[in-house]
Specification:
The protein is of the alpha/beta class. Helix content is 43%, strand content 15%. It has 9 helices and 9 strands. α1 (28-42) runs parallel beside α2 and α2 crosses α8 (229-240). It is globular. The model has no long low-confidence stretch (mean pLDDT 95).
């Protein structure tokens, strides 16, 4: 079964991240499928709303690092090209493509939205979440910069809250996420689908041409910000090959604090 599902119902497409075993972590194939779905949607004038959600009680656990295992803590040889740069850049392309959709983008969150999943939520025009949902950007606690998502978190939440997320790895339960503006509609567990139906009915009051024109204008504002995709990809790739990432990910796997959390020298 595909780990990315697309279901069309009239003028709405539902995109489901579908890898329950990893809590819908962003594999390479999922990133490619998301990007291609964005390209198709951008060229489809009959599509009015895209709903992005996750399967089996999770939204998205963030980037999948399993296939990077051999690179963690291993510096490049002199003159060696780093394949991780292109891989990380491709996720940045997805974030940009989501923001450039001419349709309304709704994120329906039930469960964890972590790291890259947090970044996906920050691209949405409207966010619905159940009370049991949790949002976090734990990358710095693992010795990694949340590089590609940083501009989108900053644009969505503002500088002060973005610093809490990105520099502290702070997690937000759904109510706190609602208070800081990440979540628009907070619903009781088990009522996500009913709330989504109500939201879609309300969102259809907006004329599609007016939505497209308005999103274009808002996109012009965002285009004044520097494009950090290449710089972010380099920062992430260098960090993944460094000793902080090796220690941070080992500590996470071993369910122990990283050395720097106890004040020990690295």
């Amino acid at each position: 079964m595909s780990n990315f599902l697309v279901v069309r119902q009239g003028d709405v497409e539902r995109w489901t991240l579908n890898d329950p075993a990893t809590r819908n972590a962003l594999s390479d194939s999922m990133v490619v499928d998301l990007f291609e779905a964005c390209l198709r949607a951008k060229a489809d004038p009959s599509l009015r709303i895209v709903v992005l959600t996750g399967a089996a009680g999770a939204f998205c656990a963030g980037g999948s690092l399993g296939h990077f295992a051999s690179a963690i803590g291993r510096p490049l040889a002199p003159g060696e090209d780093d394949p991780l740069v292109a891989v990380n850049r491709s996720f940045g392309d997805v974030l940009h493509a989501l923001c450039e959709l001419p349709q309304l983008l709704v994120c329906a969150v039930d469960g964890a939205a972590m790291g890259g999943g947090f970044g996906l939520v920050c691209c949405a025009d409207h966010v619905i979440a159940t009370r049991r949902s949790v949002f976090a950007t734990p990358e710095v606690t693992l010795g990694l910069p949340p590089a590609q998502i940083a501009p989108f978190v900053w644009a969505r939440l503002g500088d002060a809250v973005a610093r809490q997320c990105l520099l502290q790895g702070r997690s937000f339960h759904a109510e706190a996420a609602h208070q800081v503006g990440l979540v628009d509609d907070l619903v009781i567990d088990g009522e996500l689908e009913d709330a989504l139906t109500d939201s879609l009915q309300r969102l259809r009051r907006a004329a599609p041409g007016a939505v497209m024109a308005t999103k274009h204008l808002l996109g012009r504002l965002r285009s004044k910000m520097p494009d950090l995709r290449d710089e972010a990809a380099l920062a992430f790739s260098c960090a993944l090959r460094g000793q902080e990432a090796a220690e941070g990910l080992a500590a996470f796997a071993g369910r122990r604090p990283a050395r720097w959390a106890d004040g020990e020298k690295r």
